[in-house]
């Protein structure tokens, strides 16, 4: 019944789609076929991602049509532009040329005033506000708090176990860190409600946007509304606590945003902008960090040489600490090899396979016209796995990042690039390094699943969530 409704919903858009695409017909359009209106090549790409053959799907299109081609993805006429030049075009173009383009579910569930949906002065203003909390100088003071949260996680979910499933546990870890450092929301009934609603919202975010009862999208909308109300309540509580001087302006992200003022002394962000951008950071941090840590566990299990180097680096840091002493920013600066392992993991398995932008005007690219309002689809893996950029690209070699300046610009885009680099980069780095420190110094593990491959349900997902057998070390 659900797919029947979806079919007729998409069918109803066909006349509009035909009018829009015919109006823009031109010999200067890129080669390729738009396919069936609205649906186009969406199902083929999703099938390839599910089978983990999306790179080949892209390569086949490039062989057939060249480096610039048109198609239809997720309801909109689209131009595919993989490669280094394409990445540079995507990440350096201003809002007069390209706008961020998110899927309809993301726009509805996360709100329209978040960083991804803004451009120009609004984008600059809100990015600047978020960076007051996310820049390295500000995050230094939160390393100890994150260390305590991660220690508690391993004690509660890993200690005493013989077998665990990594991905759901890493998602739990990321969620708890988000609650603690972004909201100051401690463990309890409210956090438990939050995690249920958050899961429903995430399911809705990666669903077909059909708002009918019992659909994932409908559940996602209702869950998003509950989360927004909770975040609004927390903002009000923090504002009152700040007025009474019961909390520090730097206690968490919310208190930080509440204390930022513009040049005229008024609040730099509206309450709506606070809610939408808190939800964006919460969602982005939840997926990317948990995926990175999960696949680091997988890759370390398969590479004893790299594992031994990470272990030595982390044990040397442990030996320099007094019993029970929390990690510091200085400790993180010594984890250089571990972070190279993380960067190489993200090169091979980036959480985001690619992304979309929408043209703000008619755009010239590669000798072709991309009409105003069309989507542009860029792909990370087409440079990450290019052997002319990264020799033997399928081989796991953390040493590639020993000198990051040697990597050609706009070829490594796991965190974006240029002025559009991810503002949460440093937050993810701290979380990953602290988690891996405790994992390798407290446990040994080996993979126990029969199939250790992964698929992309938009984001990479290891088979069965990556079950492992673990043994706890004697760390007295």
From TrEMBL:
Record: residues binding heme: 422
Native source organism of the sequence: Aquilegia coerulea
Keyword Aminoacyl-tRNA synthetase (UniProt): no
Keywords from the named record: Heme, Iron, Metal-binding, Monooxygenase, Oxidoreductase
The protein, known as: Cytochrome P450
A Pfam family per the record: p450
Organism superkingdom: Eukaryota
Recorded family membership: Belongs to the cytochrome P450 family.
InterPro entries: Cyt_P450, Cyt_P450_CS, Cyt_P450_E_grp-I, Cyt_P450_sf
Gene Ontology biological process: secondary metabolite biosynthetic process; sterol metabolic process
PROSITE patterns documented for this protein: CYTOCHROME_P450
């Amino acid at each position: 019944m659900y797919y029947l409704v979806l079919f007729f919903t998409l069918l109803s858009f066909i006349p509009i789609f035909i009018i829009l695409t015919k109006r823009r017909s031109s010999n200067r359009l890129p080669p390729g076929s738009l396919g069936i209106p609205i649906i186009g090549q969406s199902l083929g790409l999703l099938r390839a991602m599910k089978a983990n053959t999306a790179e080949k799907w892209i390569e086949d299109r490039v062989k057939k049509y060249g480096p610039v081609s048109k198609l239809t993805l997720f309801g909109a006429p689209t131009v595919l532009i993989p490669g280094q030049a394409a990445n540079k075009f995507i990440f350096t173009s201003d809002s007069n040329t390209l706008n961020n383009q998110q899927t309809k579910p993301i726009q509805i569930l996360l709100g329209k005033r978040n960083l991804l949906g803004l451009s120009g002065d609004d984008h600059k203003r809100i990015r600047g506000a978020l960076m007051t909390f996310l820049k390295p100088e500000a995050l230094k003071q939160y390393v100890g708090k994150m260390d305590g949260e991660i220690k508690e996680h391993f004690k509660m979910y890993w200690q005493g176990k013989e077998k665990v499933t990594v991905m759901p546990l890493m998602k739990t870890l990321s969620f708890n860190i988000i609650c603690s450092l972004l909201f100051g929301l401690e463990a309890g009934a409210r956090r438990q409600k939050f995690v249920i609603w958050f899961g429903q919202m995430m399911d809705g975010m990666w669903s077909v946007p059909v708002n009918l009862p019992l659909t994932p999208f409908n559940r996602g909308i209702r869950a998003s509304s509950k989360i927004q109300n909770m975040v609004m309540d927390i903002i009000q509580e923090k504002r009152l606590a700040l007025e009474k001087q019961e909390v520090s302006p730097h206690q968490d992200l919310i208190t930080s945003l509440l204390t930022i003022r513009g040049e005229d002394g008024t609040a730099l962000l509206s309450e709506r902008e606070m809610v939408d951008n808190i939800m964006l950071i919460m969602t982005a941090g939840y997926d990317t960090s948990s995926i990175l840590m999960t696949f680091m566990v997988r890759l370390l299990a398969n590479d004893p040489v790299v594992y031994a180097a990470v272990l030595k680096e982390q044990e040397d840091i442990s030996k320099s600490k007094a019993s029970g002493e929390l990690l510091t920013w200085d400790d993180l600066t010594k984890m250089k090899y571990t972070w190279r392992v993380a960067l190489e993991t993200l090169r091979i398995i980036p959480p985001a396979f690619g992304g979309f932008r929408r043209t703000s005007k008619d755009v010239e690219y590669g000798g072709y016209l991309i009409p105003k309002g069309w989507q542009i689809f860029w792909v990370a893996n087409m440079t990450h796995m290019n052997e002319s950029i990264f020799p033997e690209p399928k081989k796991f070699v953390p040493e590639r990042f020993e000198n990051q300046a040697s990597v050609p610009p706009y070829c490594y885009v796991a965190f974006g690039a240029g002025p559009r680099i991810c503002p949460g980069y440093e937050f993810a780095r701290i979380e990953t390094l602290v988690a891996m420190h405790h994992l390798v110094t407290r446990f040994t593990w080996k993979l126990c699943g029969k199939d250790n491959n992964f698929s992309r349900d938009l984001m990479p997902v290891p088979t069965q969530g990556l079950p492992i057998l673990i043994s706890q070390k004697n760390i007295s």
